[in-house]
Amino acid sequence: MSNTRSTSTHELTVSGRVGVRDYVSSGAPYVWLTASAIAVSIIITVALLALTAVRGIAHFWPADLLEASYVEPGHAPFPVLAEVRSSEEVTVARLINAGIPVSEDQDLYQRLLLKVGNRDIYGADFRYVLDEWMQERSYPEDATVWERVEWGNLHGFLERVTRDGEVIAARDQRWDAYRDVQKRANGLREEIREIEKDRIGAVNYKLERLRLAEKRLQLDGKSRASDAPAFAKIDAERDALKQRYDTLNQERGDLYRELGRDSITVRTIDGDLHEIPLSKLISGWQPNRMNVFQKTGFWLEHFWQFISDDPREANTEGGIFPAIFGTVLMVILMSIFVTPFGILAALYLREYAAQGPVTRAIRIAVNNLAGVPSIVYGMFGLGFFVYFLGGSIDRLFYPEAAPAPVFGTPGLMWSSLTLALLTLPVVIVATEEGLARIPRSIREASLALGATKAETLWRVVLPMSSPAMMTGLILAIARAAGETAPLMLVGVVKLAPNLPIDGNFPFFHFERKFMHLGFHIYDVGFQSPNVEAARPLVYATSFLLVMVIVILNIAAITIRNRLRERYKALEH
C-alpha cells in the first residue's frame, strides 16, 4: 500500500515538473513579465507627468492671502500678509542647529513656506516660518495681490486710486476705479509694445539694410560721384525712414505720458503707504473674495498668459511663448533636413551598395554614431557649421556686414542641422528595416511589368516602407525636442529679442538665435537668482515641453498609421 502511494506521489511530482517546464517553454511567463514591466513603466510615467503638471500648473491658481502676526521668541511681532506655498515637518534638532530658539518639548515642528511678496521692500519675497508662531490669523477680503512689471508681486490693501488727477478714496468705488484704470493702462502698454517691437523695429531693420547696401556699394568700388543715383536712392529712403521713426517716437512718448498719469496708493501690512504708477502694474486681484468659478477663470487666463507672453524678470516671470515657438520651429526644420538624407542613405545602403565589408563597416559606424554624446555633436556643429560653413557664407555673400557675423554665429539653422546630424542614425536604421521588410516578390512583380529599378523603388518600395520612415522620424523628434547640451553651443540663448519669423523681408531669419524649452528649464532651474519663484515655473515648463513632444509625435504617428493602412493590402 505504501509503495502504491509513493509511486503516485512520484508520478504527480514528475507530472508537475513537466507541466511547469511546458508552461515556461511556451513563453507565457515572459509575455506576462513583459506586460508587467510595460504596465509599471506606464504607471511611473503617468505619475511623473501628473506630479509635474500639479506642481507646475497649480502655480497659477490664486491662493488666498493669510494675514497674521508672526511672534518669534525674543523678537518683536512681525505682521505677515502672504500666500502659504507649502508645509513640511521639521525636527527640533534641525531647527536648533539652524539657530532657531525652539522648545525641546516636542519632536517635530510644522514649517510653512510663505510668499510674502514685496521683494523691493523686504529684500526677498519668500520666507520660512514656524506654524506654531503664527498668531491672530485672518483672511481679509480686501487683501490684494498685484502683479508688477518688476520686483514680482505686491501684497497690500488698496487705499485710493488717482484717475486723471481725481483721487478716489471711497471704499465702495476704488476697486472698480482701479480695474478701469488698469484696463486702460494695459491697453496703452500693448500699443507701446506694438510701436516699439513691430513698427519701430521694422524701421530700424530697414535702416540697417540700407546701411549694409551702402557699404556694399563702397566695397564694390563705387562712390557718390561715380554712382550718384544709387546713393541718392539710399539717402531718400533713409530720410523717409528717419521721418517715420521721429513720428513713431513722438507717438510713443505721448503714450508713455498718458500711461504715467494714473496711479494707486497701496498700504502694506506694516502700515506704510506706497504710491505706484499704473505703468508698473500688470494686474491685480483679491483672492479672498473670489469663489471657485472666479478662481478657475483666473487660472485659465493666467495659464494662457504663461503660454502666450514673453518672459520677464530673468525668465522668472511672464510667459514662455518664444521658447515654445523656437522649439517647434527647430524640430520642424530638423525633420526637413534629416528625412531626405536619412532616406537616401538607407536606400543606398540597402538597394545599391555592394553588401561587403565596407558596407558592414558603414552600418557599424552608423549604429555607433547613435551612441555618441550629444555635446560632441554640439562641438562639431560649432566648428564645422558655424565657424567653417557659416564663416565661408559670410565672406562670400555678406562682406558688408563684417566684422559682425550673419551666418558665422550660432543660430537656428545650425542648431537644426546639428540635431539632424545627431538623429540621422535613427532615421537610417528605421528606414533600412522598413526597406528590408518589403517582400522580394513585390519588387519582382514590378520589374516584370516593365518598370525600371528606380521606378520600382520610387513608386512601390518607398511608399510601402513609409511607415517605417515615419517611425524613425518619430524617434528623431522625441530625441531632438528634448536635447539641450548641443544647442547651448550652436544657437540657443537665454532671451531672444526677436522671433526667427517676423514681418520683415525675407520673413524667415534662420540665422537668428532662438529660445528653447529645454534650455529655458535649465536656465530657470539652475541660473535663476530667485529659486523659490522659479521652482513652479520649472515644473510648468517641463510639463509643456512634454506636451509639445507628445503633440509632435501624435501628428507623426497619425500620418504613419494612415500610410500603414494605405499600403497594408500590398504587403499581404
Question: Can you identify the CATH class of the largest domain?
Answer: Mainly Alpha
Please tell me what the overall shape is: flat
Name given to the CATH architecture of the largest domain: Orthogonal Bundle
- Unreliably modeled segments: none
The first-to-last residue Cα distance is 63 Å
Walk me through what this model shows.
It is a single chain. With 572 residues, this protein is α+β, with helices and mostly antiparallel strands. The chain contains 18 helices and 13 strands. The strands form three sheets. Strands 6, 7, 8, 9, 10 and 11 form a six-stranded antiparallel sheet that branches. Helix 5 (171-219) runs antiparallel to helix 6, helix 10 crosses helix 11 (412-436) and helix 11 packs antiparallel against helix 14 (466-482). The longest helix is centred in the middle third of the chain and has 49 residues, at 171-219. The radius of gyration is 33 Å and the shape is flat.
